[in-house]
Amino acid sequence: MLHIGINGRSIFRRLTGVQNYTREVTRALLALKPADTDFTVFAGREGRSGAEPDLPLATSFLPADSPMRGLAWEQTMLKRMAKKAGVDVLFSPANVAPLFPPVPSVITIHDLAFLLFPQYFSLSFGTYYRTAVPRMAAQASAIITDSESTKGDLIERMRVPADKITVIPLGVSPDFRRRVTKKEMEEVRARHGLPKKYFLSISSLEPRKNLKGILSAWELLPPDVTSEHRLVVVGAGNRIYADPGLTDAMSRQQPGSVLTPGYIPAPDLPAVYRMATALVFPSLYEGFGLPVLEAMTASTPVITSDRSSLPEVAGHAAVLIDPENREELAAAMELVATDSGARNMLVERGKKRAAGFTWKQTATQTLEVLRSVTY
């Protein structure tokens, strides 16, 4: 019987990209129900909250619910828990893993933003990642990445052997495919103060997400577009990598033209996407770019970057633009707002594209990698 341990530190944190991946791939692995495999999900004291009652949890008396406490738990308590449980392999889905793991280790490294954009990270956070992640990658038995783009970065920037890396694309939750009723949309609209028509930006408030680029393009749109639409910027920042110049850029906008509802919980996101004229996602760098798939699945047109992993994810189902060309971005937004034929084509192409990405497929391929390091 194969016993797989999962580093569940990120499951009990606020849901962002990496946390979403950790939760979804964990649930999908368990849903496979392989007859020859047992799972244990390791968590800190916060795992006792009852928030995830269906997970086969092993929790510690120490918490892992903040960046520093989480790192301490991961490098000490997690190793002891995994050894005591007798797992055959330890899977760490959220970029970092225990150094000197007691059993074969598989780590998912989603991106190398900390190496490629060091100026966007706090000194302590960036220094830790730039020091520790290459060591973790060297000590891992196998590495999973979300895209060929990140695999190339790992080979070039961290000298990881190509045969050690497996590219496994992310899936998209079926929640985004479900029918959203008019009543639900109006309730979500009222709950978050959303306008009737809007362009949607959804991401963490990191500089590489290029939110200032969206605001700059917004200023170029003709009055017939901006009078009918608003720009809704959804996301949450934190002291590790929030964009310090974003507040100034926001202050230069016309009053009421840009709305910032902040963090929106996952159950409301299908309606938020569905009501949007388009998702605007001109990121400078992504390891994958899950909002692109979420929007496509929710029948929302997508405007995104022609860089890093985003062309891999979007294919020919989105408007690809140079994220540093505000005229190009503004032209794409105007096209989607004014041309119903282009909008409908993007919706149909997006739904077909997104249908090929499922968490079951992600989990099946992940399980193959986990099994391979124990042979």
Strand portion: 15-25%
Distance separating the two termini: 12 Å
Helix content: 40-55%
Count the helices. How many? Answer: 16
CATH class of the largest domain: Alpha Beta
Biggest sheet: strand arrangement: 3-2-1-4-5-6-7
What is the name of the CATH superfamily of the largest domain? Answer: Glycogen Phosphorylase B
- CATH architecture descriptor name of the largest domain: 3-Layer(aba) Sandwich
Main beta-sheet strand count, sense and barrel state: 7 strands, parallel
Unreliable segments (pLDDT under 50, ≥5 consecutive)? Answer: none
Rough outline:
globular
What topology emerges from the helices and strands here?
Blueprint: E1 2-7, H1 17-32, E2 37-43, E3 57-59, H2 67-75, H3 77-85, E4 89-92, E5 105-108, H4 113-116, H5 123-139, E6 142-145, H6 148-158, E7 165-167, H7 182-192, E8 198-202, H8 211-218, H9 223-226, E9 230-234, H10 246-251, E10 258-262, H11 269-275, E11 278-281, H12 290-297, E12 302-305, H13 310-314, E13 319-321, H14 326-338, H15 340-354, H16 359-372
Parallel strand pairs: 1-2, 1-4, 2-3, 4-5, 5-6, 6-7, 8-9, 8-11, 9-10, 11-12, 12-13
Helix pairs in contact: 1-16, 7-11, 8-14, 12-15
Explain what this protein looks like in three dimensions.
This protein is of the alpha/beta class and 375 residues long. It folds into two domains: 185 residues, Rossmann fold; 181 residues, Rossmann fold (3-Layer(aba) Sandwich), CATH 3.40.50.2000. Helix content is 42%, strand content 15%. The chain has 16 helices and 13 strands. It has a seven-stranded parallel beta sheet with strand order 3-2-1-4-5-6-7, sandwiched between helices. It has a six-stranded parallel beta sheet with strand order 10-9-8-11-12-13, with helices on both faces. Helix 7 crosses helix 11. The two termini are 12 Å apart. The model has no long low-confidence stretch (mean pLDDT 92).
